[in-house]
Amino acid sequence: MRRIMFTYFTSDPSSRALCSPMLLSTFSHFSLFHMAANMYVLWSFSSSVVSLLGCEQFIAVYLSAGVISTFVSYVAKMATGRFEPSLGASGAIMTVLAAVCTKMPEAKLAIIFLPMFTFTAGNALKAIIAFDTAGLALGWRLFDHAAHLGGALFGMWYVTYGHELIWKSREPLVKAWHEMRTKNTGKGGGGRSN
After folding, report:
1. Structural domains of the chain in order of their starting residue, each with its CATH number
2. Which pTM was predicted?
3. 78: how many CB neighbours lie within 10 A of its CB?
């Protein structure tokens, strides 16, 4: 059975049809309001997460988060028998939010329409996880709660353990890329001349 599964996911061209939607759903939104809300949260937290991770690592984590949160959504929908579209954009945004809230739990946050009420990032993350857990358990259909939880848990895991386990071994490759780019720019390969 293991050999059959391995062969299916590596040599069968249809396996690409299984993975592509999970990656592409990272950029999918249900409505204009959904996209606006996600872009506002991404804009609010992106500078913090980029300063924590760097550009390359942020892009890798964001795309991975979209795939992982969509996969969690697929699993939850298969388990409950609800076959609705899964949109990984919110899960990827939740990864960004959870990563920042995990690394900076004492940071003060506020809701855009209620700026007079502030709360810590740690408390905000706990409230979001509680809300999405309740939504998943009670079958609420307002949001894709499974994708939100998958993204939040991935973000928390990544900034706590994933950076050390995954990114540290790839850092030399990124440094070599930057050095190669810097050398090419210095030789007239697209850099500005003074």
Report:
1. 1-183 (1.20.1540)
2. 0.74
3. 10
